[in-house]
Amino acid sequence: MVLTLYYEPLSSPSRAVIAFLELNNIPHEKKHISVLKGETKSPEFLKINPNGLVPTIDDDGFIVWEHEAILRYLAETRRVYKYLPQDIKVQTLIDQFYPFFHSSMRPHVIHAFFGYNGLLPAGAWNKEAGRKKVEEVLKTFDEIHLKDKKYIAGDQITIADFSTVNELAQVYFNSDIDWNKYSRVKAYLERCLENPVIKATNIPLIGFTKGNAQVKKSSRGGFWSSIFCCSSSREEVGEIQKV
Ligand SMILES: N[C@@H](CCC(=O)N[C@@H](CS)C(=O)NCC(=O)O)C(=O)O
Q1: Is the model's pTM score more than 0.85?
Q2: Which residue among 31, 53, 98, 109 is best mutated to probe the pocket of ligand 1, counting the most ligand atoms within 8 A of its Cβ?
């Protein structure tokens, strides 16, 4: 049975998996589970991933969620090591990066992505504070992680970069951050986006952040609920529709 990827194009971890599959020519079929329509929380999808999150894969009955685990699983099972080199030092630098990615980078960047795009409940977005948090992350990323390297784990792009470029693109394309203050990060993002597949996977996001979306109030909730601890905020977030 062909590998199935459950994904949402506006989800940065989904885009990282899509780019990885395509760049490695891994046969797969994609099933769009619309976060915007609440499909991640449908009874059918919850049977596949009880956490109700994308990306998720089904590899002949073996279900995997968490995009980092998916990327590693795909590299190992398909024996494609271009983006996960079999070098313990490179792999350790990747391992060392992910806690920073999950605990600092992603939460602040997503909050800002929502804030800049008008997707947070009234009063939940303080632009100055939100931008400051992202800038703290960018400073650390610039001065420590990219200090003397082209990519996170050295001179070669790895899965850690797949995660990061997709995440940071959410604020790279639409925010008032002065990226010239973080010249290594800016050069890094441009370098990653030179890859036509990585660039293509980010195109839905570019269209989205250019303002081709409007927010509609809805009581459904369930939109990126992993980000919100409080269900009342989720209910206010509403539904987004492309216009
Ligand atoms: N830690 C997970 C995060 C997955 C995640 O947050 N997915 C979001 C989209 S980016 C989602 O599916 N949200 C659905 C919902 O909140 O209902 C990963 O790295 O894969």
Answers
A1: yes
A2: 53
Q: For ligand 1, which residues put their CB under 6 angstroms from it? A: 8, 11-13, 35, 40-41, 52-55, 66-67, 222, 224-226
Structure tokens at 243: 């216009």
What pLDDT shows up at residue 216?
35
Q: Quick one: pLDDT at residue 38? A: 94
Q: What one-character-per-residue DSSP string does 117-181 give? A: TT-SPTTS--HHHHHHHHHHHHHHIIIIITTT-SBTTBSS--HHHHHHHHHHHHHHSSS---GGG
Distance 55 CA to ligand 1 centre (A): 7
| Cα→Cα distances 163→16, 90, 94, 126, Å | 6, 16, 11, 26
Q: How many CB atoms neighbour CB 214 within 10 A?
A: 12
Q: Look up residue 7 and give its DSSP letter.
A: E
Of residues 225 and 86, more confidently modeled:
86
Query: What domains can you pick out in the chain, each with its CATH number?
Result: 3-77 (3.40.30.10), 88-207 (1.20.1050.10)
Residue 226: pLDDT over 80: no
